[in-house]
Design a protein that fits this description.
With about 375 residues, the chain is an alpha/beta fold. It folds into two domains: about 170 residues, CbiD-like; about 190 residues, no CATH class. It is built from 13 helices and 18 strands. Strands 4-5-6-10-7 form a five-stranded mixed β-sheet, covered by helices on one side. It has a five-stranded mixed β-sheet with strand order 15-14-16-17-18, sandwiched between helices. Strands 1-13 form a two-stranded antiparallel ribbon. Strand 4 and strand 5 form a beta hairpin. The protein is elongated, with a radius of gyration of 26 Å.
Length: about 375
């Protein structure tokens, strides 16, 4: 068996900002050209990068670092992150965001409304990096650092930021300073942050959807506001756990039958690389209702649940089969989430509603009442 290739680590936007800020401060205070700069990340690793696109003025210097995400599929990979250093009278290092760095407009994040979306750890990185330079220099004043990302506003459209109420650009992120090529962890952290924002807005009856299809159904068929909905992708189990920990009162899961049917087998991560028992579930529950071998064989040979439903929806036992599946979905959801009410709505893009768990309508009503408040 061939050895698995070790994925290359990168560095965060926060590390890039700190490196650029350190170089700019050094050029400003020490009157030297800086072509490479190094810092120690919160994880303890030393990162050394090229410093590019420097601009010197009488009272300010701006430098850039090119983001390297390693082997992580990151939309910010390759972009330039700039830091401008300016002398100020105050004896401290002040950090703010400029063009392409988002501004916070909702409660529930690490920053206050109106502040730049520069997370606490990156902000601390930037301050420490600049403070090092000040301590090496005979300078008694302070430094104003402004982080800018020229491509930030456009890139932010591909991130969770618009849903989080962060407008105008990307966030400057990173808790370790290093990008580990584990996009699953990053996505889970983003889901958790989005849930915090929804909770902070006053929502207690949460709606979860795996993706865009679920959101469309929530809005167009259930008539509920998407401001109370969070996309959980394939990570249904982990998201349920987060919701319980945060104190939500109920959870309504709304999604395409092709994903949510897997819950009937207790599969809480619905990614096809983890498990795919869609046809097996349909075959098992159809068999329980008396389906013949020919029909079961046809279903087992299907590639999509839409195709399988086309075969099954004409059978006299179809509704009983759906009900049997929904009871198992409810069972496994309730086993995962014993502390608060939870239910699900499953639908097909082609065939419409597949079904609801027993308490789904009550949860929908609760969500509507909360909207009315």
């Amino acid at each position: 068996m061939a050895a698995t290739k070790k994925l290359r680590e990168g560095y965060t936007t926060g590390t890039c900002a700190a490196l650029a800020a350190k170089a700019a401060a050094k050029m400003l205070l020490q009157h030297m050209d800086v072509t490479k700069e190094s810092i120690q990340t919160p994880k303890g690793k030393i990162v050394t990068v090229d410093i590019v696109d420097c601009t010197k003025k009488t009272d300010a210097v701006m430098c850039a670092v090119r983001k390297d995400a390693g082997d992580d599929p990151d939309v910010t990979d390759g972009i330039l992150i700039y830091a401008q250093a300016t002398r100020i009278a105050e004896t401290e290092v002040c950090v703010d965001g400029g063009e392409g760095v988002g501004r916070v407009t909702k409660n529930g994040l690490s920053q206050q409304i109106g502040e730049a979306a520069i997370n606490p750890v990156p902000k601390k990185q930037i301050i420490q990096a600049v403070q090092e330079v000040i301590e090496e220099t005979d300078y008694s004043g302070g430094i104003q650092i402004v982080i800018t990302v020229p491509q930030g506003a456009e890139i932010a459209k591909k991130t969770f930021n618009p849903r989080l109420g962060i407008v105008g650009g990307i966030s400057i992120l990173g808790t370790t300073g290093i990008v580990e090529p584990m996009s699953e962890r990053a996505l889970l952290e983003s889901i958790q942050v989005e849930m915090k924002v929804v909770y902070a807005s006053g929502v207690r009856h949460l709606i979860l959807t795996p993706g865009n299809y679920g959101e469309d159904y929530v809005r167009d068929k259930l008539g509920l506001e998407l401001t109370r909905a969070v996309k959980c992708s394939n990570y249904i189990g982990e998201t349920i756990d987060y919701a319980v920990e945060m104190g939500f009162h109920s959870i309504l899961l709304v999604g395409h039958v092709g994903k949510l049917i897997k819950l009937a087998a207790g599969i809480m991560n619905t990614h096809s690389h983890v498990a795919d028992a869609r046809m097996e579930i349909l075959v098992a529950h159809s068999a329980l209702q008396g389906a013949n071998v020919e029909t079961l064989s046809q279903v087992m040979a299907c590639i999509t649940t839409e195709e399988a439903i086309r075969i099954l929806c004409e059978q006299p036992y179809y509704e009983q089969m759906c009900d049997s599946i929904l009871k198992k979905v409810a069972y496994h959801l309730e086993q995962r989430c014993k502390d608060i009410a939870i239910g699900a709505v499953l639908f097909s893009n082609q065939w419409g509603l597949f079904g609801k768990t027993e308490n789904a309508d009550a949860l929908i009503t609760q969500a509507r009442k909360e909207e009315a408040w």
